[in-house]
Amino acid sequence: MRAKVGGFLRRHRRRALPLIAAMVLTMPLLVGWHWAKLGWRDWHYNYPSVSNGYTQIVNRFGQPCSAAARAVYMYWRAADTGMTYTVRFHRKLGGYPTQMVTGKGGASTNLDNDVYGHIKNDHLGQNVKHGIYGYACRYKRNGTSWSTHAFGIAIDLSSAEEYMGKTYSTTNYRFAPIFQGHGWMWGLSFNDPMHFQYATGY
Amino acid sequence: MKRTLAIVLSLLGSVSVSVSVFAAVGRTEPALREVGPPIGPLMAPDTGGGELLVVVVGGVYPTRAEAEAVNETMPFGDMSGYYVAPVAQFQGFDQDIGSPGDFALVSAFRTEQGALDFVGLARSFEYPARILPARVRSLGGVYTGLGQEASPDGTGPLTHPVPESLP
Question: Which of A194, B4, B135, B151 could pair with A162 in a Cys bridge, judged by C-beta atoms 3.0 to 4.6 Å apart?
């Protein structure tokens, strides 16, 4: 059978190659369409402005460790281990009812509908590995200033593989542009490729 | 003469039109939303001396150097994780965990919920995390992470003792 297919391809190389190329190019679109078929669409609804610096973060999102900072949750499954994590985040960054998200008292569609939906729709979920965390009432490492996680405006993905101090990315780079396209800053710029935050200058 | 007059008049006219447009579209600067004074960004270390605290333990080691070496291998991303502290700064620590060493990786909390949240964080990084079965009394000493938990009233971090932590 393999010999027959090989022979066919050799004989019809000119016609087969464009056909294969067309299939490779259109397959992701056809498969991606499936998630959208379920009803998902990118709402881009009511995103807060991206804060720059501590004072703007507090003015926009309130105090660290507040009830609003952990008001909304979503589940995120690690593709490599199959473990499902509960990710909590600020009510201004998601929880608004859409076709894919049940209403959780949130004010926008940013993280749980738009970013997550985009990653699903583009079939990039397989690149999110274990070690996933959102809200955490913690200081920054080796300091006493609040981490962006304490405001519910940061998320770590694939933390075991994309460890802090790594100067390059081996998996998160595949979906990082989706976060960046929705207002998030990627921590690769400060050697923390697991980290995404909805703020700059802090 | 007529040309100069025309230029001056047209300049005056354009300035008055600009002023009118700015006056028409101008708005009063919106008042800043009241969210209370910012907490931090730098927090004073809180050791909770004399309080009864919930302690999460990541490991116990014979020497400070060993404990610090292990702690270096357990980063929590850009967040603070465990703190190295002598077990002697918690009265009752030995009763709960035996005496396998003099230094421990710990994080202290005033509420059970704060400790549980930290255990969840540590486990997401696949690090060991165990809550001591009983509260232990802080004798002061080095900072062990107190204040990094949510206040039960939802307003922000818990920066003061709660009834359960008072002796």
Answer: A194
